[in-house]
Amino acid sequence: MTETKTMLEVSGLGHRYGGGGGHQAIADLTFQVRTGELACIVGPSGCGKSTMLRSISGLIKPTAGDVRLGGAPVNGVPTDLAVVFQDYSRSLFPWLSVRSNVEFPLRSRGLSKAERRSRADEVLEWVGLGAAAKKYPWQLSGGMQQRVSIARALACRPSLLLMDEPFASVDAQTRFELEDLLLRVRKQFDSTVLLVTHDIDESIYLADRVFVLSKSPASIVADLEIPLGDERDQITTRESETFVHLRSEVARLLDVRSAQAPAAAAAETIEKSTVDDTTKQLAEAEKADAHN
Ligand SMILES: Nc1ncnc2c1ncn2[C@@H]1O[C@H](COP(=O)(O)OP(=O)(O)O)[C@@H](O)[C@H]1O
Ligand SMILES: [Mg+2]
User: Fold this and answer.
1) Which residue's CA lies nearest to atom 5 of ligand 1?
2) In a domain, 1, yes or no
3) N or C of the chain: less Cβ packing under 10 Å?
4) Average pLDDT estimate for 237-264
């Protein structure tokens, strides 16, 4: 009998920005992601999804609860974790080629130049960008840039891949292509993935399991197994009775009719500032690396 292992364990996670009188972004999140699972967290804009991912990835220190990755407590940014953000244009380095962008995080992981090159070429092949290795991010479409971000994350062979609304900034057709790409590569690399989105259909289409969040401050209101099988198709899966039923169930849980627009605009601003911070951190790491 094979035992199902837990990759990520989040217990009583809470975060309040700005101390005692500040803003409670997430309330009390408890959930687990199993090894090899693709879990989606769906919640309205502004409910605290990015705050949760930042806490899990060690980018911010949560004010309550704890996070364990592979059984070990997360303090600071773990090296066996990779994050893909929504805003690809700010998370890639414009002065580096596609291949160098993908190789970049491997430098601090002690791989030789040849190993870095072969890993980068392998993942670029997998995301369909083998021919674009020497191009620069600004020469690529948005969807292709997001493929580079995904390749960069996979090149690290993370034990957990975190994705924060990774397909929210591309057109509908590209979004479908990227969703299917994710389903293919997670099989190829046997990845464990935690993806957050505000898009109900996307969460169901991609996931083995969907956690539904309440409005801010977020807590988990449902944990749904998604029995759609391994072979999914953008047309037939979305038409299936199971899919349609799950979509209504999640919509009811989210109470979409009372969703508010202003929170979305506020969250958008925050999102950008966080990506900027992350890019800054990466740039500093690169400078430090260049001196070594
Ligand atoms: N750095 C911050 N300082 C203060 N409040 C913040 C900060 N980041 C996010 N928030 C607030 O916390 C709430 C949750 O934000 P966020 O985690 O970005 O939500 P989501 O990703 O679900 O859209 C929002 O009300 C947002 O305005
Ligand atoms: Mg967000």
Assistant:
1) 17
2) no
3) N
4) 82
